[in-house]
Amino acid sequence: MAKSKAAVVTAVAVAVVVWSLSAIVVESGIGVNWGTISLHKLSPSTVVDLLRGNRIHKVKIFDADPEVLGALMGTGFEVMIGIPNEMLAALSSSTDASDLWVRHNVSTYMVKGGVNIRYVAVGNEPFLSSYSGQFQSYVIPALMNLQQSLAKANLAGFTKLVVPCNADAYEASLPSQGAFRPELAQIMTQLVSFLNSNGSPFVVNIYPFLSLYGNSDFPQDYAFFEGTNHAVTDGANVYYNAFDGNYDTLVAALNKMGYGQMPIVIGEVGWPTDGAVSANLTAARAFTQGLIYHVLSNKGTPLRPGNPPMDIYLFSLLDEGAKSILPGNFERHWGIFSFDGQAKYPLNLGLGNGLLKNAKDVQYLPSRWCVAKSSNDLSGVVNHIRIACSAADCTTLNYGGSCNGIGTKGNISYAFNSYYQLQKQDSQSCDFDGLGMITSLDPSVGDCRFLVGITGSNSSSSTLCRRWFIAWLLILLGVWIFVM
């Protein structure tokens, strides 16, 4: 009887330990993409505090910005740093180039009390069909060189190389028929073999929003996780949401190559809150909360039951008002937080911290706005709006945007204010040939928010510094290669 009781106690203890470990794995499975292409940029230390406050310990960044990496020192966060596609050619040319890059951007930070660089993303969606193969030939050579460089630095056993792929790398009419695009078959075979040999996951970016945005026939309810009248039947499997269908298309493609058990990380997934008809706070909350609960339920997908993605990185942490809007006006509105670190909607990340917590101690400019004067003839204002919106972000004014319905004078005032805040409320920046005036009355209307800037550096200088850093590094790499 004593033996039996001891066995039960032992079994319970083991079960508790296993449950605890599994809980830890689940809790650490949600990360965020931290993009920095902003017009009003929070200081990296404020962003790190925001991450801490929300128990977010997995972070993906798109370059190796020294300012950002400096703020991540000593946090213990699991970090994925990125190499821009434009640098792949240089890094594929020789191990001298990759040695230099690893030394500057990985070894420097992988010290005691440094940055926990778990992954290096080699390029960002380099196989995207719209690139027409521009970066394709550089990926595998760059991977090989960087792997050698990590090995020389005694980091290859810990820091893993990955290649974030867009979901357009594979295709099928049904998930079970998934296969990589024919022109990518050879390079994908090489890539997946490399990832498998080095213990790296396959990283993919999945965006049901873009499927809905780009296809008027796409059933809207299939993009979410709340049930659908448009389920997809694939043999014995039934798909009730686009995310699972897309994910299993990749699983099927990997199966065909003999790597059906390869771990998969979702490098980017999210829903924008503005800039398009289907981009709004309600839809973003429904999608993101539904996704988190779905993944953390551990149900997996029909082709991988009980085996959800290894990690998911929400896209994104903050809005980025200086991003290109070539894909659409929504590009500047992916954040679960606005540019100033304020939560846009109630969201539980499943990390044991309840709903999102706002950034603390954000230093705002005074509560002043620039608006159009009522008494003036505004007929000559078009050129002023064009200039203001070429520098500031006015995407919410366009069709589908949260400020689209505020009227002509409201549109003018919004453009004026956006420029005024970007210029740190310089009084001259609200002149507009006498058409603008400064007010202390908040002109925001409903969901249309007239922003007040923050005192931190704006991204024009930060982005410029980063571009200079990359340019310097490329020049240095080129000189190094030439000398060698």
Automatic annotation (TrEMBL):
One Pfam family here: Glyco_hydro_17
Chain ranges of the X8 domain: 368-450
GO molecular function list: glucan endo-1,3-beta-D-glucosidase activity
Transmembrane segments: 467-483
EC number: 3.2.1.39
GO biological process terms on file: carbohydrate metabolic process; defense response
Localization in the cell: Cell membrane
Domain of life: Eukaryota
Coiled coil (UniProt feature): none
UniProt xrefs under InterPro entries: GH, Glyco_hydro_17, Glyco_hydro_17_plant, X8
Keywords attached to this entry: Cell membrane, Disulfide bond, Glycoprotein, Glycosidase, GPI-anchor, Hydrolase, Lipoprotein, Membrane, Plant defense, Signal, Transmembrane, Transmembrane helix
Membrane topology summary: Lipid-anchor; GPI-anchor
GO CC aspect terms: plasma membrane; side of membrane
The keyword Signal is assigned to this record: yes
Catalytically driven reaction(s): Hydrolysis of (1->3)-beta-D-glucosidic linkages in (1->3)-beta-D-glucans
Family according to the record: Belongs to the glycosyl hydrolase 17 family.
Protein name per UniProt: glucan endo-1,3-beta-D-glucosidase
Primary gene name: BG9
